[in-house]
Amino acid sequence: MSVNQQDLDPDSTTEVEDVTDAEEELIKECEELWKDMEECQNKLSLVGTETLTESNAQLSLLIMQMKCLTAELSQWQKETPKIIPLNEEVLLTLGKEEFQKLRHDLELVLSTIQSKNEKLKEDLEREQQWLKEQQQLLESLNVLHKELKQQVVTVSESRIFNELKTKMHDIKEYKEKLLITLGEFLEDHFPLPDRNVKKKKKNVQESTAQLITLHEMLEILLNRLFDVPHDPYVKISDSFWPPYIELLLRNGIALRHPEDPTRIRLEAYHQ
């Protein structure tokens, strides 16, 4: 070993010393391991060579492993580590080997990544196809929803229109019934005055105008109230019998004009 150290340059001498120290440290660790194994073997020999049961199969396996390690350790102790000369040619060779190994590992990594990329590409295409199908399905459902919504609106509007039409018809029938009942009540209880009855005041000239019934008077006032709501007053004519006018005024059914007492209107009960 001294001859090799003389052939090397000063820089390589330091490196050789480092290798020698590492070798000695390795041998020292092997010796300590050998001592531990000898102690274990001595302890096992004290136990005896009894036949192992099935429950002690694991112990038998450990003993076999120990024997294998003992033989391997003995083989390593017989061999002398070879010191690699640290010249430029050897370093170049080692560098090439490490480079080739690194290149091989990188090629494996590249192949793996490419395989993963291909798989991811296939997954992406499959997901895009699925998304496209889902979008088409969503568009179809939206169109169907709009159609159903329009049908529902049409059916709803038609139903509401029919209901309102039925209600209007019922209201008209009820109105006609009320008018007929009111007319019958007024004809029975408020008839026209008897023209055969002589007037108490003979100096008053008998009016030649045709008197109308109370029912007709109320219809005139009611139509005026709804047809011309901004001016609901009606001019009192000779066809209005004065007792009926007084009856309407006294019971609050009709009101006089505040400035023209010859005009009256029907009370707006609906407001």
Automatic annotation (TrEMBL):
Cellular compartment(s): Chromosome, Centromere; Nucleus
Annotated spans, Disordered: 1-21
Alphabetical list of Pfam families matching this protein: CENP-K
Biased composition (Acidic residues): 8-21
GO CC terms of this entry: inner kinetochore; nucleus
Keywords noted in UniProt: Centromere, Chromosome, Coiled coil, Nucleus
Alphabetized InterPro entries for the sequence: Centromere_CenpK
GO biological process: kinetochore assembly; mitotic sister chromatid segregation
Name this protein carries in UniProt: Centromere protein K
Membrane-spanning segments: none
Family according to the record: Belongs to the CENP-K/MCM22 family.
Coiled-coil regions listed: 103-151
Organism of origin: Equus asinus (Donkey)
